[in-house]
Amino acid sequence: MQTVKLNNGVEIPVLGFGTFQITDPIEAEQSVIAAIKAGYRHIDTAQSYMNEEAVGRAIANSGVPREELFVTTKVWVENVSYEGVKASFERSLKRLGLDYIDMLLIHQPFSDVYGAWRAMEELQEQGKVRAIGVSNFAVDRAVDLATFNKVVPQMNQIEINPFNQQVKNIEALKAEGIMPEAWAPFAEGKNDIFNNEVLVAIGKKYNKSVAQVITRWLVEQDIVVLAKSTKPERMAENLDVFDFALTDEDKAQIATLNEGESQFFSHSDPNMIKWMAERKMGV
User: What sequence ranges are listed for the domain NADP-dependent oxidoreductase (predicted)?
Assistant: First the structure.
């Protein structure tokens, strides 16, 4: 598996298996085991996904040594504070059945982000977390966090897909040494993406699927990519992207698909912020 290096020297597999919306415990465990069997070594979960226990069981039963896996989890809004991170991290660690986490992220840019970050810096100093970062942060928020604290975030996990390409934001993050990671690279199928004429045509050139074209497009930008599937054949397909390269013409064609806005919701929407604040999950 190809890796990329974070700003603290830690290497992360460029392709990760996402577990969002896989809430059934049996399905979640089986899916992660299948993903690891297919070749994934980077597993992404979160407190709010309500599947950390299942992910932990899958890791334990995968037959792959712990040190060969890169495991990410995220702190939900209700736990974003100094004490909240300290307490909820221990709960996540217990649910996952692990001694350490490879990557810990603040899931949303709300609540006491700066108190939470200080706790995460301490967890990293103690060796309980190898890398720390954020998710869904606008570039200015990420830079603010980096500028006024000891540790520059190693990662910002954001929505990146052909309809929301975030070109300037990606450039700005990289300029600060913050690795971009793409969630929803396939836009969860929105806008009939898997039948998009541009992407289908590019795929035919290389005998690749639309998903493979999108994944390759991101990998060539040195962006870490999270993909989710519960089907083993799709998992294997999503990993099979290292035997072809896109041309400048291909990339120019993909650039024409950019709508320049989220395919889901805006993190600056006051109603969305209030909704997340009210979403108490007891995690």
Answer: 15-258
